[in-house]
């Protein structure tokens, strides 16, 4: 069986990087499955439910902001994908990993550039990871509403950067990212 792996959340200033691993039944196809960034939130939620109901197995992995700061975002993304594979209840035979790099695993694997738009299992992983990360950011919004994580999901929108300048970083901001590091340096 083939597993697809993808991550979301490399670009935000706050929150974790989240990855998913999805093993779909042989021959499974849904024309709506694509790169999660190209889908509306409503469509991602619908597809996540379908994927959850029909996947042979799936898993989620993540690296929190302190790990991102310690490892760097590239290594944290690969680590999150490896954790997603470990969280999957069924061991696949092969891996398809979105991007240019493979993960640490003894399983045979191929890195597929823009794989979330080319392979159903990677696209499905992209969707599950995005839905999971968005849900996490909604929870963080409840704790830190001033940053409006419900709307920006931690991405560096104009409003988010303005609030960062006014009140400084929260505990879930990535301190190694330049806009956040500058605020920390200024004592905010």
TrEMBL record:
Binding site residues for a divalent metal cation: 6-7, 98
Cofactor note: Manganese or magnesium. Binds 1 divalent metal ion per monomer in the absence of substrate. May bind a second metal ion after substrate binding.
GO cellular component: cytoplasm; ribonuclease H2 complex
PROSITE patterns tied to this protein: RNASE_H_2
CDD domains in the record: RNase_HII_bacteria_HII_like
Reaction equation(s) it catalyzes: Endonucleolytic cleavage to 5'-phosphomonoester
InterPro entries: RNase_HII, RNase_HII/HIII, RNase_HII/HIII_dom, RNaseH-like_sf, RNaseH_sf
Annotated ranges, domain RNase H type-2: 1-188
Protein name from the UniProt record: Ribonuclease HII
